[in-house]
Specification:
single chain; alpha/beta; Rossmann fold; seven-stranded mixed beta sheet; 7 helices; about 25% strand
């Protein structure tokens, strides 16, 4: 089973479309900040969260419960396809309904092997995977660049190293992040 969580008007064939508003006529009406989700343990093969995760879980306890619910319903090796605006882009900053930035490091806090590595190093990173009994790892990251930076790369005005520096330093370089997150279960 594949879920399109927070589907809104983007109703997809081949997915169970879930939204909190009946207005969009989803397959399932459910608020993603209410628990439990109406799906069985270990029943989901894939989850799409397209421009959803930045809108939910403003309260850290609620956000952690969302992650725990995603983990509960995922099968081993399920893909969670996350698409979010980059936290340093005006698309994220300007929308008052965006309640939290989604970052690579933030998602790595739910990776058990990273947690164990950080604990050995005595790093200050909060071991959320260990605390909450979840384990997700990042399989793939794709940055969707603003057209200006695509052209600079294509015209060889900047190289990949310079682009990475721009991404770290400046706003409005990366428009969107597409992250494949994998649920790992024993």
């Amino acid at each position: 089973m594949k879920l399109n969580l927070g589907s809104g008007s983007k109703i997809l064939k081949g997915y169970v479309n879930v939204d909190k508003f009946q207005y969009y006529n989803p397959d399932v009406v459910h608020d993603l900040e209410k628990f439990p989700y109406p799906f069985e343990d270990n029943s989901i093969d894939e989850i799409l969260l397209s421009h959803v995760l930045e809108h939910i879980g403003q309260n850290p306890d609620v956000f952690n419960n969302i992650i725990k619910e995603l983990y509960r319903i995922c099968k081993n090796n399920s893909i969670v396809d996350i698409r979010v605006p980059h936290p340093r882009h005006d698309d994220f900053i300007s929308d008052p309904t965006h309640v939290r930035p989604i970052t690579i490091l933030g998602l790595q806090l739910y990776d058990k092997s990273m947690n164990e590595k950080w604990e050995k190093m005595k790093a200050a990173n909060t071991p959320l995977a260990l605390i909450h009994g979840v384990n997700f790892t990042i399989k793939d990251i794709n940055f969707v660049l603003e057209k200006k930076y695509i052209k600079l790369l294509e015209n060889k005005k900047i190289d990949q190293n310079e682009l990475q520096e721009y991404i770290r330093k400046y706003n409005n370089v990366v428009k969107e992040m597409k992250i494949k997150w994998v649920a790992l279960k024993d």
